[in-house]
Amino acid sequence: MIKITDRIFAETNYTGCNIGWVLTDEGIVLIDTPALPADIADLKKKINISNIAYTIFTHEHFDHVLGGAEFGKRIIAHINVIPEIERLRTALPQDVNIFFPELYRQHKNYFDNVKLNFPQITYNDTLNLKLGSTEIQMFHVGGHSSASVFVYLPQDKILFCGDNINFGMPYPTPISQFDEWNRLLKKTERMDIDKIIPGHGEICGKNQAHDLRVYFEGLQAQVTDMIKQGQTRDEVIGSVDVAKYLPVPMDDSLKPQIAYHTGMMYEQVYGKTK
Ligand SMILES: [Zn+2]
Questions:
Q1: How does DSSP assign 203-215, residue by residue?
Q2: Residue whose C-alpha is closest to residue 179's, from 86, 268, 84, 101
Q3: Which domains occur in the chain, in start order?
Q4: How many Å lie between the centroid of ligand 1 and the Cα of residue 142?
Q5: For labelling, which of 72, 125, 140, 180 has a CA lying 20 to 30 Å from the CA of 235?
Q6: Residue 258 Cα, ligand 1 centroid: separation in angstroms?
Q7: Residue 212 — very low, low, confident or very high, per pLDDT cuts 50/70/90?
Q8: What is the radius of gyration, based on Cα positions, of the chain?
Q9: Closest listed residue to residue 69, CA positions, set 146, 16, 142, 132
Q10: pLDDT surpassing 90 at residue 22
């Protein structure tokens, strides 16, 4: 458990995703939920579950929302979380088995039976909570996923950013939108932020937003040029060279990730030319 400020805490050692919580005069606000039974039990030892005022989801991916079944008395989320939870209510075992087969094998009974909770409070663009002296702002940013939001505590200058900003290489998924992602990274660079709690990995600063934007923009510029020259998707993936834009030192092990990002970027840039 990491104490971020007097009232903000985070847990970055759970298997599913990072968890945050804020102590307010009107109870605890939990930000994202642990996905596995052992981590759920661990969190219950650290916070008084009956004192949770609200649980906020940063986005719809199952590694962030699963614990809503345990911690979800009053869940707040972007409206686009609802269709994904509807889908996950039947597709969860299959999804976990595809992306994390070993985890599924170990916890099959749990994943087959867990009942996901829908958010009770949803919003489209922004939502503000004022709980005693604590202000919590939520705003929709998209990028990594359609329901991705930022959870910002302006008095503390702390940002919970879901999977949009993290140390190291970014985590695009097939539904990520790079234009939106670049816009939200630029916005983050202008925000008053001391620390960012990412959806996964170590706590970081807003320089990570800058580093990810440099990578996405460098990749986008090269892919755009290659499309103008008439290169095919496979040719673009084969010839792109983004070593100097990467947020981490170039390494051969990164090639599959770069190829995946390049393929997605090709489809989004090419899609705009049609
Ligand atoms: Zn995610």
A1: -B-THHHHHHHHH
A2: 268
A3: 2-205 (3.60.15.10), 212-273 (no CATH)
A4: 11
A5: 180
A6: 18
A7: very high
A8: 19
A9: 16
A10: yes
- The answer for 101, left when phi > 0, alpha when psi is -120 to 50, beta otherwise, is alpha
- Nearest Cα residue to 161 out of 177, 170, 172, 148: 148
- In the structure, what pLDDT confidence band is assigned to residue 72 with cuts at 50, 70 and 90? confident
Q: What is the largest CA-CA distance in the chain?
A: 61
Run of H or E residues at 177: none
For 19-23, 41-45, 66-70, 229-233, which range has the lowest pLDDT when averaged over its residues?
66-70
| Residue 64 CA, ligand 1 centroid: distance in Å | 7
Tokens representing residue 140 in the block: 């929709």
pLDDT tens digits for range 224-257:
999 999 999 999 999 999 999 999 999 999 999 9
Q: How many residues in total does the chain contain?
A: 274
pLDDT at 271: 86
Arithmetic mean of pLDDT over the chain = 95
CA of 231 to the centre of ligand 1 (A): 31
Q: Is the pLDDT score of 44 beyond 90?
A: yes
pLDDT higher than 80, residue 120: yes
CA of 61 to the centre of ligand 1 (A): 5
Backbone angles phi, psi at 268, to 5 degrees: -75, -40
Region 123-143: what's the mean pLDDT? Answer: 97
For residue 88, give the amino acid letter: L
Q: At what angle do helices 255-273 and 178-190 cross, to 10 degrees?
A: 110
- How far is ligand 1, taken at its centre, from the CA of residue 145, in Å? 7
Distance of CA 81 from the midpoint of ligand 1 (Å) = 12
How close is the Cα of 230 to the center of ligand 1, in Å? 33
